[in-house]
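Now read the record:
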Amino acid sequence: MTNNDILKKLRVALMLRDDQIVEILELVDFRISKSELGAFFRAEDHPNYVECGDQVLRNFLNGLVIHLRGTKENPKNPSDVIAKHKAQIPVKEGASERVEFKAKPKDEEKARGDQKPGQKNYCRKKETF
């Protein structure tokens, strides 16, 4: 997994916008523009793709700690910060409220690998003699 992948996954998991990431990096006195940041999120085969260096990721993670936890003098609750980010996500047109992403419950039989009578199992390997 590359630094770019880690940065992308954190952005999605914490519901961060590019301008919020720039602000997080500024908490540790690391300056980067939104266009430089956008190059990290491009596809690897894109001509403007830039590989995220260790220094950028390290500064982002250090800034993220300050952003979520706060400082020793002014502590924060990380759950409140994430809820604030979630509240800033706009509601789509025609929807009465923001769509929540929830995992669907798995069917117990499928989760355990049980089969119904007469059902073929395509996952098992054939035994060879």
In short: The helical segments are 3-13, 18-26, 34-40, 54-69, 78-87, 108-112. The chain has a mean pLDDT of 79.
